[in-house]
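Morning!

As promised:
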Amino acid sequence: MRYVYLIFGLSVITVLVLAGFRGSFSERPPIEIFPDMERQPKVHPQSPSTFFSDGRSDRPPPAGTVPRGAFYEDTYFASGKQGEDWGRGIPVEVTQQLMARGRERYNIYCTVCHGTLGDGAGITREYGMIATPTFHDARLRDMPDGEIYEVITNGRNLMGHYRYQISKEDRWAIVAYVRALQRSRQGTVDDVPPANLSELGL
Amino acid sequence: MSKTFPKWTNTLPLQIVIFLILFLGSVTVGITYYFTPEYTRVGYRPPQPVAFDHSLHAGQLGIDCRYCHSNVEFAGHANIPTAETCMNCHNQIKGDSPLLALVRSSYHDGTPIPWVRVHQAPDYVYFNHAVHVARGVSCYECHGPVNEMEVVWHDKSHSMAWCLDCHRHPEDYLRDPALVYDLDWRPASKEAQREAGLRFVEQWNVNPPLSCSGCHR
């Protein structure tokens, strides 16, 4: 009997040594113990595919087509242009909600380089991205709103485009927020509503 | 009468029973411990073709999750970023690094980077990222402290029982939507979490599906 227990004890130890414990790191893909239809031959987003010649499941839209929901009339809202020139003004209603949305989107996509304050001192500056301009100079203060929209849409110089990450509505929200950032550096005490003066100790 | 069986055989039936209990008990414990995603999936940490470090980008630099995973708020699938996204910074930062060779070639000729998928729900599960993050389920609840991971690993089990824990008691997990992408945020206490969670559940009429067809279509 003692041999039986010996063999039993040894096999328990073998299992523990081979299988390890829960949560230990492994580079092997997870074992699927009951693989009932866990993997089906269907198309998954951003996955390899043997069906298409370029080996991917994601298809670019065929030339000359517009995806549903992606069509916009050639308006100021969609192009940033009024006639031949970059337009001025925000073509959506500027509300507190829009500004909040603009600030949120700005802080996701723009602060990395342009900095939370719009002074071009984002975290990337410390890593060698030194050409990021500040919003607080005459050139960018005078830049038409439509042109800022265009820069977000298509990028400029070393800046990449953000047309896929940021929707058109959100781009305008960011433009409005950038305007607010610029305004914040131009403010004087006369801009403060009288009721709020005491909060600033004035 | 001759001794056909020696005396020790008297205890043999008992010994066999004891051994069987021990043996079957161990097998049960072993299956319970090992035959679960808590063992099979958790800790899966494959090396990636490009050594992207989340602890640097999301942790140290503080880049928002959505800078790269930009579809997460409106799509079921939280996208892997395109090489274009990487090149927004890496056209200037470490532009010649051999570590980024695959990113550059992908950027120039469109060759996909063969990222190794870490989290993969079974194909009969239809998980939607957008609805979860919109209602205050943080990235952290399912993916763990990604902002501290040099190489991403599978942190939670993603078993069905684990999904149902939250679907049955969302108040224990929901947070302010403004904090969804703040992976360092933790509730002050269990009670505080529950109190705020119950408020969110009521305010947004959170009613996670418990029927099969909620996730299996």
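Chain B touches chain A through 48 residues (CB under 8 Å).

Hope this helps with the figure draft.
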